[in-house]
Backbone:
């Protein structure tokens, strides 16, 4: 009898929901029992804002637990992973992606265009702040923090102080709260973060049996999409903190699957807004991402990236 596999997870509602989803999929695919091991991170203990700590603290606590053999595998929100890999660890599976789009949750069921001028919209990422400002809707866009429930309460709770918030649809869907979304935002207006809605299932590279078992959860089109989006991010990232968005769609073409990658770099005030795209085959996902990043740099993204330091 094999001992249960230990799946390390943070204790937040979203992390637990994602971990339970993957635990069930691993059990179904392998017949192995999976037990959740809660890892308390420096980020969970601290009251400092996540923006200052960086999501890296959550990721590194799980990675330390993997390296120390306290757990066998971990599930990350892929978009929170640094673009550089981690020595000794391997992303054994990228399960099917949730809807990667961003979502608006507004009072009185409103959509973006139904919000009155001067409406106050809260959101966390610079990428979203910049794109909301680029719409020219005369919204007052303010940075907010906290977990999904905290952010939703700023619009729907008894002490609501915002007209709307923008969050990833995927997180709300996994928490069973997609029904509270008042508009799912078209990627033409709000291009998502690279890898948004995707999960990364990580284990020790040396555990070849587990690497092989977890591969049953891998979804090739999602992996190709995420590879393209993150290649773009990694190529642009050199020393910058500018808002970068990327979204790859995989569709059936005449000669097999085709990948359609869109990328955007927007100045934080929303005034300069560069959007370009490329197509190719999923096998070339990484090259397409790098090439689109080069296109964006040629079109002036470098000055945009430089000006936001
Ligand atoms: N940075 C926070 C974060 N990391 C992952 C998700 C959930 C969506 C996903 O899995 O991409 C969220 C919340 C959000 O952006 O609204």
Residues:
């Amino acid at each position: 009898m094999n001992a249960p596999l230990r799946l390390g997870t943070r204790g937040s509602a979203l992390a637990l929901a994602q971990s339970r989803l993957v635990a069930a999929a691993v059990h179904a695919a392998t017949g192995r029992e999976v037990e959740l091991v809660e890892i308390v991170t420096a980020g969970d203990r601290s009251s400092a804002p996540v923006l200052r700590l960086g999501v890296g603290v959550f990721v590194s606590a799980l990675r330390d637990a993997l390296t120390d053999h306290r757990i066998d595998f971990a599930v990350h929100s892929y978009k929170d992973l640094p673009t550089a890999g981690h020595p000794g660890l391997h992303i054994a599976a990228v399960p099917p992606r949730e809807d990667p789009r961003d979502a608006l949750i507004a009072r009185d069921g409103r959509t973006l265009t139904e919000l009155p001028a001067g409406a106050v919209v809260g959101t966390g990422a610079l990428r979203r702040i910049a794109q909301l400002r680029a719409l020219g809707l005369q919204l007052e866009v303010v940075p907010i923090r906290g977990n999904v429930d905290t952010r939703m309460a700023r619009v729907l709770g008894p002490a609501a102080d915002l007209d709307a918030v923008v969050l990833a649809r995927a997180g709300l869907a996994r928490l069973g709260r997609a029904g509270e979304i008042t508009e799912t935002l078209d990627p033409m207006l709000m291009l998502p973060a690279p890898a948004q809605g995707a999960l990364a299932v990580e284990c020790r590279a040396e555990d070849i049996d587990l690497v092989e078992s977890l591969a049953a959860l891998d979804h090739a089109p999602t992996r190709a999409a995420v590879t393209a989006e993150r290649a773009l991010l990694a190529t642009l990232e050199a020393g910058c903190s500018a808002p970068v968005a990327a979204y790859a769609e995989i569709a059936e073409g005449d000669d097999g699957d085709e990948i359609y990658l869109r990328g955007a770099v927007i100045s934080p005030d929303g005034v300069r807004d560069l959007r370009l795209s490329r197509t190719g085959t999923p096998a070339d996902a990484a090259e397409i991402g790098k090439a689109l990043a080069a296109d964006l740099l040629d079109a002036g993204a470098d000055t945009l990236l430089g000006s936001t330091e």
Observations:
- The longest strand covers residues 256-266.
- The mean pLDDT is 92.
